[in-house]
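Sharing a chain and its predicted structure for anyone who wants a worked example. Both blocks are below, sequence first, tokens second.
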Amino acid sequence: MIQTGEMLTSTSTYPDLGIVTREIIFPVKNTDLVVGIFVDITAEKRRREQTDLVKSQTIQQAQEVIEKQMIMAQEIAGLLGETTAETKVQLGKLIKLMRQDPL
């Protein structure tokens, strides 16, 4: 890194300290010095994890609602189909009866 003059950016976790840091390290031109900036991003990471958890739970609940709605729609369609078939049979019998000539 010192030889190339490139900046290095990384994220590190320090479990013993209970923190997460973003680290920016870069060489100072024309010297043998290196500058390191460490930013504590623990709170940001926790908020992001909490947000990800809420999103995940919301997606799961939405999928469950969709599945329940599909099951209910299929049940309603089945019942509607049954009653429509029964109605057709009964009305067909009524039509046949009404078309017969009374003697």
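Comments welcome. The first helix runs from residue 42 to 99.
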